[in-house]
């Protein structure tokens, strides 16, 4: 069971819901996390359960980032709106930076998200089980 975060900016929420609905069968059996409204919209339109954090601008991105920093998130789908300024842009950049530091795959558009989900469906994320098994303790 992988831990997957789902985040979408306002103008990308419909796209996220449509994407998750199309691949609902792949996401079943995994632990899903989402920022406030995105998580709720997914639950309203699918049979999936999503652990909801705060809205992104209110700290939800940082809550997910905390899991990434602890290497407790397996991958993220973050549908960003590149044409709209975000008031919490520093939080977004920090989350993406943490993904790079920890080697956590992060899709920021549907094309890349589809590649990750198809890899998930094929079982290509088995390497994450080794990460969790051999995760060093906090020193």
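-> sequence recovered:
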């Amino acid at each position: 069971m992988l831990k997957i975060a789902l985040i979408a900016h306002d103008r990308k929420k419909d796209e996220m819901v449509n994407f998750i609905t199309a691949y609902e069968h792949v996401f079943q059996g995994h632990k899903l996390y989402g920022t406030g409204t995105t998580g709720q919209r997914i639950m309203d339109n699918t049979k999936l359960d999503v652990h909801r954090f705060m809205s992104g601008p209110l700290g939800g991105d940082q809550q997910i980032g905390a899991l990434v920093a602890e290497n407790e998130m397996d991958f993220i789908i973050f549908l960003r709106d590149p044409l709209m300024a975000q008031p919490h842009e520093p939080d977004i950049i920090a989350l993406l930076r943490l993904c790079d530091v920890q080697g956590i795959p992060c899709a920021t558009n549907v094309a890349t998200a589809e590649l990750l989900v198809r890899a998930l469906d094929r079982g290509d994320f088995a390497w994450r089980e080794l990460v969790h098994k051999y995760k060093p303790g906090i020193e």
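The beta strands are 3-8, 31-34, 50-52, 75-79, 106-107.
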